[in-house]
Amino acid sequence: MRDVQLARVAEQYGVATSYEDWRGRRVPVGPDTIRHVLRALGVDPEAPDAAAPRGLLPPAVVVREGKAPDLVLPGSARGVVETADGSLLPFDPGLPLGSHVLRVTDGGVEHDAPLLVVPDRLDPGALRDHPRLWGVMAQIYSVRSRASWGTGDLRDLAELADWSARDLGADFTLVNPVHATEPLPPVEPSPYLPVSRRYASPLYIRVEDVPEYARLDPARREGVQRLARPLRERGRTADLLDRDEVWKAKRTALEVLFEVPRAPGREAALRAYLEREGRPLVEFATWSALAEEYGSDYRAWPGDLRDAGSRAVGAEALRRWPAVEFHRWLQWVLDEQLAQAQATARAGGMGVGIVHDLAIGVQAGGADAWMYGDALVPGLRVGAPPDEFNRLGQDRGGPPWNPVRLAERGYGPFRQILDQALRHAGGVRMDHVMGMFRLWCVPEGASADQGTYLRFDHEGMVGTLVLAAHLADAVVVGEDLGTVEPWVRDHLADRGVLGTSVLWSEQDGDGEPRRPGDWRADCLATVATHDLPPVASFLSAEHVELRDRLGLLGRPVEEERAGAEARVERWRRLLVDLGLLDEDVDPVADPAAVVAAMHAYLVATPARMIGVALTDVVGERRMQNQPGTTTEYPNWRIPLTSAEGEPVLVDELLADPRMVARIRRTLGPVGGGHGRAL
């Protein structure tokens, strides 16, 4: 009887009691996991009324534009919509797009809920105007230049986008998340585990592009350059990236620039930005100022500072106002440089421009968790169940949204994050897009395979995404790899959200590669992702040896190596059969020829977008990230290098004829100035 009650409560709150794994097997979830997840959501699973209906209205009502609301109200109830501008309208089809409030009166009692009116389908101009788009994918922190301070920055991004547009005909540049990082070292290396998705990381600022740098006297300008020189020297090597040293130097330089008097026009622009951002920016900057003293996990702060809305926090913000102002100023500088990167990309001829990546989560003690409070679930960590490539599952580290609390807030926190990502972009990639339907949640302290799925109202989540992208006229790509319910892909395609199809995963039930005509059209087609080895490493099975050394294999290394080699051979045969690769090419000896053939294969698919990894076109062999590891592998600290292990700088992409020739050969029919004609 208790198990029946637990199952009913779990169903009421969207907690899965079983799931289908990557092999298609039904796996039950242990009752202890279910209870832990429910309690983290604030639900007592033993309470007699835990499974009872929660009220007349759902936490939020979502209506597609032009369609009749499907909410059924009692016959005695009367509903009216208070729109965003304060107008009152009947609860009927024809409501304007946006976030409103539904007010329902029944029996003299008034009930209200957020009401979202969202587009039925996303139809961005770039996809209307171009039958196909292609672009370069890069981890921008790894793409350095002679002028950057040891890690790639927003000027490097602008120059990469401009070069790939003008010389290669690219339509977009897809980059890693540039979300906010800690205000003081140590800096978390993973761009997918930020302190905030609402704001950006000042690590990406090009110091010399801040206009106040030009106003420094020669002595202070030389002082700034003394900070940069050792970082630039290291940036000309293949040594691992050191974000801590870079941020120490950049922060010192930026503190100098912050004190420089701004010209009247600059001061007016700053004030306009601060007014636009309002309270959320003050809260983020306050968290940053407090984190400088108490650490970047607010859960370890003094008790009266853990509530972002408390009077104690307000008093501390006033006491530390110069530091709060500094962090607000940093975000303004970032906003300007993000805008310049997008403007440069579009001026170079890109139809889309920069496509920013939105991470699935944030640090449990970071700024977003502090600012958004109960909209996130403490005690749970977002992850992924075991799959073909990660047999132990994944623990991505951050807390999930609380489905009920987020909906009660009209999906406002999610919308703020989306608006920020799209402000200076032509598109957004949604990491683990299935998280808008359900998220694999792992109780803190448990292993990644000991979790369960937490379900969301996908109409609200996807509707919020489509609304934000519609207003920005942006392309949306969802990363829908791994264990995905088939209907999820259908729903996203119906809403105009592209999926992600990865060459290595496109195979039938017998493991044979799919022919290009069998691929779906509504997708971004790529050879691999940042969580998979570069092609050169995949072809040689180096990745198998790496995972064996790290203890990540779920079967003997000999079996794993044989499976990897068999997969490469199947793809080699297909590429030869299609006339894309010469029969006598040895994939291990000539990986560039295979990369070119694979890109030619992608061109033969009906995919609406094609993404080419910069690592593959320069011959990089090292993985950016090895799932299942933290400190065991230098994740997210790998600089861009060539097949010979030499550093590749943006300057070389622009000027070195040998490098450009190699890239053109490796791109095959995708690039060479023909991209927009595909």
Describe the structure.
With 678 residues, the protein is of the alpha/beta class. Helix content is 38%, strand content 14%. The chain contains 21 helices and 21 strands. Strands 18-15-12-9-8-21-20-19 form an eight-stranded parallel sheet. Strands 3-7-6-4-5 form a five-stranded mixed sheet, with helices on one face. A hairpin with an 8-residue loop joins strand 16 and strand 17. Helix 5 runs antiparallel to helix 6, helix 7 crosses helix 9 (321-347) and helix 18 (591-604) crosses helix 21. The mean pLDDT is 93.
Shape verdict: globular
Termini Cα gap: 61 Å
Spans where pLDDT lies below 50 across 5 or more residues: none
Helix content, binned percent: 25-40%
- Rg calc: 25 Å
- The average pLDDT score comes to 93
Strand fraction: 5-15%
Total number of helices: 21
Entry keywords:
single chain; 678 residues; alpha/beta; five-stranded mixed β-sheet; globular
Secondary structure blueprint with pairings:
Layout: H1 2-12, E1 18-20, E2 26-28, H2 31-40, E3 61-64, E4 78-82, E5 88-90, E6 98-106, E7 109-118, H3 125-129, E8 133-138, H4 154-168, E9 172-175, E10 179-180, E11 196-200, H5 218-234, H6 243-258, H7 264-294, H8 311-319, H9 321-347, E12 353-358, H10 367-372, E13 380-384, E14 394-395, H11 403-408, H12 412-422, E15 427-430, E16 438-443, E17 452-455, H13 458-472, E18 475-478, H14 486-494, E19 499-502, E20 523-526, H15 535-540, H16 542-549, H17 557-577, H18 591-604, E21 609-613, H19 614-618, H20 650-655, H21 657-667
Parallel strand pairs: 3-7, 8-9, 8-21, 9-12, 12-15, 15-18, 19-20, 20-21
Antiparallel strand pairs: 1-2, 4-5, 4-6, 6-7, 10-11, 13-14, 13-16, 16-17
